[in-house]
Design brief:
alpha+beta; FAD/NAD(P)-binding domain; six-stranded mixed β-sheet; globular
């Protein structure tokens, strides 16, 4: 996957693309993969980097949604559990089975959540990951030794999926290329072209060079997540907003706060939210919140109340209370919840996906979640094919192996997240042993990964590598800042840039990374 080649394809292709997809997050990439794998000539345009927004800021879970079961949304849970099973089969190098423990501190917790998890198991059917069961107090503390022992009665263990969201996004872009599609990052759509009243393409600007393009297609898909309304209003200035954004934040702590392999799931905190403490990349990720927001941004800031909420509730369930000084990084993401009514409570607004076709033929897909991205894409492409009058072909993504697919690998190998591509990174090191050196003593990333990310993963900036090709920024913001000069130097060498570019990249990244430090980017007031 190479951006220069993608731009060349965009510039030299004559005629109509079958489909243009706007948006390079989970939904857009899913649509791009589905369309390309059905034989459609497909172009995907992303204004920034793949998964820059919501899709790299999840709780890192591929899950059915225990809270949706509690709300009685059985159809959503069924769909998500089915998709969870398919994703584990199609991307085993990135998606794994994760044990979760629900601690019981009240006498009624055990029977209540035990029965609920059995329903969860039953709904998963033959795609289940393991049976849930009750745990004694001793078994619970053996699995999670840092759990608060006072008044603990026991627990319930169940199984869900865990993944690396941004790495999956990159692999989906590569899968799109593998199937003849053309994804391009840093290409912003600024308008539509029309044939009469119908949309027949887009106007786009290359954010690197400033070059403008007019690109024609038989159908255009709006898959822009929290930016959905801006595209709808670009198509029709009178279009009513349909997105009610909700912000979720996560704090990242050292592994000492969760030294075992199991995660903690608290199904209902004092205000009715779900709290997770999840082991991930040798750290502990704690979240999440559900706060209505009106400001749509690629880099949302946490609210002080959100940070306080997570620290206070983590202290209730962990024997060692996390303090602000223990936070290695804090990241915030916006959920594109669909609200076609007047409900301002984001916890009550639908988590289902929403598909609509405008009178101009624009196909819009929004809502949903990472776990169901494939089904969202299937539904969208089915409709887009009808709108465009393309030859109908059956969806093949249920069994489509995602780029990097590898079933047998060593989880202790720091490169195992690359799946079958890891062998090529090791060959880079064989040719130049210096590329095997770590970029920072506290994180596993090595220089060869930077080179690979530029050559084969379309990384264009220091942020692209440190935030999404690797996960350094969200794991340890200070360590990521220390890595920036070495990363900038390696990228400049690969891309043919000078020292001035390196210095700008380091400065820009340090400004961004500072906002991932606790207190570096915090709203003082709570959103209405």
């Amino acid at each position: 996957m190479n951006r220069e080649q993608a731009i060349q394809e965009l510039e030299t292709f004559e005629g109509y693309w079958d489909m243009i997809v706007i948006g390079g997050g989970a939904t857009g990439l899913g649509v791009g993969v589905d369309a390309a794998s059905r034989g459609c000539k497909t172009l995907l345009l992303e204004q920034h980097d793949f998964a820059k927004g919501t899709s790299s800021r999840s709780t890192k879970l591929v899950h059915g949604g225990v809270r949706y079961l509690r709300q009685g949304n059985i159809s959503l849970v069924l769909e998500a559990l089915h998709e969870r099973g398919l994703l584990i089969r199609n991307a085993p190098h990135l998606v794994s089975n994760q044990a979760f423990v629900v601690p019981n501190y009240e006498w009624w917790d055990g029977p209540f959540y035990g029965a609920g998890m059995k329903v969860y198991d039953m709904l998963a059917g033959n795609l289940g990951l393991g049976p849930s069961r009750h745990l004694s107090k001793q078994e619970t503390l053996k699995r999670i030794p840092t759990l608060e022992p006072e008044k603990l009665r026991g627990g319930v263990v169940y199984y869900d999926g865990q993944f690396d969201d941004a790495r999956l996004a990159v692999n989906l872009a590569q899968t799109m290329v593998d199937n003849g599609g053309t994804p391009v990052n840093y290409m912003k759509v600024i308008g539509f072209t029309r044939a009469g009243e119908m949309i027949d393409g887009v106007a786009a600007t290359d954010m690197e060079t400033g070059t403008s393009y007019e690109i024609h297609a038989r159908v255009v898909v709006n898959a822009t997540g929290v930016f959905t309304d801006s595209i709808l209003q670009m198509e029709n200035p009178l279009a009513k907003p349909i997105i009610s954004a909700s912000q979720g934040i996560h704090l990242v702590l050292d592994k000492e706060f969760l030294p075992g392999e199991a995660a903690i799931m608290v199904p209902q905190t004092a205000d009715g939210r779900v709290l997770f403490v999840v082991p991930w990349h040798d750290k502990a990720v704690v979240g999440t919140t559900d706060t209505p927001v009106s400001d749509i941004s690629l880099e949302p800031c946490p609210f002080k109340e959100e940070i306080d909420f997570i620290l206070e509730h983590a202290a209730i369930y962990l024997s060692k209370d996390p303090e602000p000084k223990d936070v290695k990084s804090v990241f915030a993401g916006l959920r594109p919840l669909v609200n076609t009514g007047n409900d301002n409570n984001t916890a009550a607004i639908s988590r289902d996906h929403f598909l609509v076709i405008s009178e101009s033929g624009l196909v819009t897909i929004t809502g949903g979640k990472w776990t169901t991205y494939r089904k969202m894409a299937e539904d969208t492409v089915n409709q887009a094919i009808l709108v465009a009058g393309l030859n109908e072909k059956e969806c093949v993504t249920k069994k489509l192996r995602i780029h990097g697919w590898l079933k047998h690998f060593d989880k202790n190998d720091p490169l195992h997240y690359y799946g079958s591509d890891a062998i090529y990174i090791k060959k880079l090191i064989s040719a130049d042993p210096g590329l095997g050196n770590k970029l920072h003593r506290d994180l596993p990333y090595i220089k060869a990964e930077v080179v690979w990310s530029v050559r084969r993963e379309m990384a264009r900036t220091v942020e692209d590598f440190l935030a999404r090709r690797s996960r350094a920024l969200v794991l340890d913001a200070r360590a990521a800042m220390a890595m920036a000069p070495a990363v900038a130097h390696l990228m400049a060498r690969e891309l043919g840039y000078d020292a001035a570019w390196e210095n700008r990249q380091i400065s820009d990244f340090n400004d961004l990374a500072g906002t991932y430090l606790l207190g570096g980017c915090v709203h003082q007031g709570k959103e209405a």
